[in-house]
């Protein structure tokens, strides 16, 4: 008989090491040191089993939905996404909705998004003075939602209703608190504003959708993909389903992309040798002035790509990924019992040392670790910056494209340097973990001053 992971005396010691000094802000750290990389905590009467490292990740990511469920643990997002959308939809409909979302981010669509991303970035940075200081995290949060509105929601929203949508998104975002995870309908002001914002968002998008359907005009954006999508039975998506899927995509990408853009820039600026290589790569890859930056150009930015990937490894925005165990889950010689909430923790797992399926010198920023001769992160589920398996992040390519395009415009337009000599610290109080905003100030000088 397999031993139950709940028994403290038989906690699985899959690669036990002294990790705690690496994670001073994570409460998981002491548990890794004490119990190894598979252990159970209890919260509000619910057993939560943490699964760290490639050996424990495999059953977490590979198990089918009937055995390991996302929907049950993310139901708290239903008031934001809407009834019948993603986690609130029947399993067969959720899978089709995810397919619609995935098709909106295929190569053909991604190629059409690059000019929109470039324009948004160039227009945004044109408003900066020739010289000064900014809070990069705040700036990137604004720019990311601008690019997202262009690519996801289309010209009607971006050109005429952007402020309204941005304000509504803010209220939706503020309506997801730690309390919401356990009590999504608790009578608190944040939830009241969240619910009102979701209703208003539905009305706003409903008018845009009706106008498009009536006119027959097609646009190159995600909204159009959803309008044209049909379930297998021939049924089209309702206006509210379309709104919910757009909100879901915005939630999936807005914080994660703005955080990753900021971390990548800050890490690069704190490593002058890397920054020189990034600037040199821009000079080699970007076409002459007057020619557009394309999808293919962005894909040639290998150094930039590995800098973004390494920033996510070191500082993943989502530090916990959750599932519900609907059956007993074997993990090596141990068994995670049915009914447990199981969690993977990218922020800890991707800092494990190489001997435990992690990375050499894991606390060092080294974008070269992913290429020869090191070739790290190849072991299955060692790198989980975008999750993995059946529910790997479908927006990975869009996210890389968005972050790389924005940083390309930033680094080509300005000389930049951090104001503080030390790297920012992660803000673990946030639901999506980014750098402490007051530690992300940068100093910039425009390379070609405005006329």
Provide the descriptors you would attach to this structure in a database record.
451 residues; alpha+beta; Cytochrome p450; 2 domains; 16 helices; 48% helix
Structure in words:
The protein is globular and about 70 Å long. α5 (107-126) packs parallel to α16 (396-413). Helices cover 48% and strands 10% of the residues. The protein has helices spanning 28-35, 53-62, 78-81, 91-103, 107-126, 136-153, 155-174, 178-182, 189-215, 222-228, 239-269, 272-285, 295-299, 302-314, 346-349, 396-413; strands spanning 3-4, 38-43, 46-51, 68-69, 131-135, 321-325, 329-331, 334-336, 341-344, 414-418, 441-446. The protein folds into two domains: 1-66 and 320-362, no CATH class; 77-316 and 385-446, Orthogonal Bundle (Cytochrome p450), CATH 1.10.630.10. The model is unreliable at 8-30 (pLDDT under 50). β2 and β3 (46-51) form a beta hairpin. The protein is of the alpha+beta class and 451 residues long. The longest helix is centred in the middle third of the chain and has 31 residues, at 239-269.
In short:
By secondary structure, the chain is of the alpha+beta class. It has 16 helices and eleven strands.
Number of domains: 2
Number of strands: 11
Mean pLDDT: 87
Report the radius of gyration as a whole number of Å: 22 Å
Low-confidence stretches: 8-30
Question: Layout of SSEs?
Answer:
Blueprint: E1 3-4, H1 28-35, E2 38-43, E3 46-51, H2 53-62, E4 68-69, H3 78-81, H4 91-103, H5 107-126, E5 131-135, H6 136-153, H7 155-174, H8 178-182, H9 189-215, H10 222-228, H11 239-269, H12 272-285, H13 295-299, H14 302-314, E6 321-325, E7 329-331, E8 334-336, E9 341-344, H15 346-349, H16 396-413, E10 414-418, E11 441-446
Parallel strand pairs: 1-8, 3-9
Antiparallel strand pairs: 2-3, 4-6, 5-11, 6-9, 7-8, 10-11
Helix pairs in contact: 5-6, 5-16, 6-7, 6-11, 7-9, 9-11, 10-11, 11-14, 11-16
